[in-house]
Design goal:
It is built from seven helices and ten strands. It has helices spanning 2-9, 44-53, 72-82, 123-145, 216-235, 244-254, 288-291; strands at residues 36-37, 57-64, 88-95, 110-116, 148-152, 156-158, 170-173, 211-215, 259-261, 281-283. The structure holds 5-phenyl-uridine-5'-alpha-d-galactosyl-diphosphate (2GW). It comes from Geotrypetes seraphini (Gaboon caecilian).
């Protein structure tokens, strides 16, 4: 026992240098003092050690409804290679066609749970109802099985490591199309009648709908609140411009995330900005005619 503690204390990490910050080309801290995660700002070995000591278990939720089941194979195969390697992971696959879920070999400590869910006719509802479904399962199942939830789009692939550096109470991701823009140009919902309304002189960042997460408790609060907002809009016959993404942006305006992921974690492969040293999770182009109904 004594020996292992000694060994632990001897694990060597390079010293963080106050006068020599690793990144000076991008914002790494928000005005409410939470980190923005960019390559170079963290030491993954150090973080892995900390999270291992807590023996954390991570749940990944992903929806594959109708034709989107075709994206599952690549999504899961690349996740096995790059997502939370060395940690305990539950994949929660929410689908209307459990038989179409591919059989992917999983590493040790990793499981797949297929949850059959109803298919909605309108694609806007497929996207928006994800929030309701996550909130329901968070309360009745996920809370008993995992510590954190990571909620992702399926038309994506991992192409570099995504590890415990992303975990925090509640986190969002900078949308790749907007991280260099002024807030007036964000595609927030601008109609006052919608619950997702944000004024032109408000808003911190434009967050992507396809990558968010946090502790199960916090993700429950978020999904439950934004499902309620979506339902209020429905009752008032209004639908926010970017559906669930608009409501997510409103939620994060009032409940600031406790960590923010850079566009390394949601990249659309448009251009090659110097600040993007890694492309960890990238959008797989969908042939709209074939995939969307
Ligand atoms: C969605 C739109 C139109 C036709 C089909 C679908 C669809 C989506 C579907 O038939 N089946 C399905 O499983 N989905 C799930 O929703 C799937 O997990 C997919 O990755 C996710 C988002 O799909 P989609 O096509 O809306 O992607 P984007 O790139 O337009 O999504 C952004 O904007 C959305 C709101 O409109 C969401 O916020 C999304 O998270 C964003 O990335």
């Amino acid at each position: 026992m004594k020996k292992s503690r000694k060994q632990e204390a001897r694990m060597k990490f390079s010293q963080p240098e106050v006068m020599n910050p690793p990144r000076t080309d991008v914002l790494v801290m928000t005005p409410w003092f939470v980190p923005i995660v960019w390559d170079g700002t963290f030491n993954i070995n150090l973080l892995n050690q900390q999270f291992k000591l807590r023996d954390v278990k991570i749940g990944l939720t992903v929806f594959a409804i109708k034709k989107y089941v075709v994206f599952l194979q690549r999504f899961l195969e690349t996740a096995e290679k790059f997502f939370m390697v060395g940690h305990k992971v539950n994949y929660y696959i929410m689908t209307d066609q459990p038989k179409e879920v591919p059989n992917v070999t999983l590493g040790e400590g990793r499981s797949m749970i297929v949850l059959k869910i109803q298919r909605y006719a309108r694609w806007q509802d497929v996207s928006m109802r994800r929030m309701e479904i996550i909130s329901l399962f968070a309360k009745k199942q996920f809370i008993h099985e995992v510590d954190y939830l990571v909620c992702l789009d399926v038309h994506m692939k991992f192409s570099d490591c995504v590890g415990v550096e992303i975990l925090s109470n509640i986190f969002g991701t900078l949308h790749p199309g907007f991280f260099r823009m002024q807030r007036q140009n964000f595609t927030y919902e601008r109609r006052l009648e919608s619950q997702a309304y944000i004024a032109h002189d408000e808003g911190d960042f434009y967050y992507a709908g396809g990558f968010l997460g946090g502790t199960v408790e916090e993700v429950y609060k978020l999904t439950n609140q934004y499902h309620n907002a979506i339902m209020t809009d429905k009752a008032n016959s209004i639908e926010a411009l970017w559906h669930d993404e608009s409501h997510l942006n409103k939620y994060f305006l009032n409940h600031k995330p406790t960590k923010i992921l850079s566009p390394e974690y949601m990249w659309d492969c448009k251009g090659e900005p110097k600040v993007l040293r890694k492309r960890r999770f990238v959008i797989v182009p969908k042939n709209c005619d074939q995939i969307k109904n």
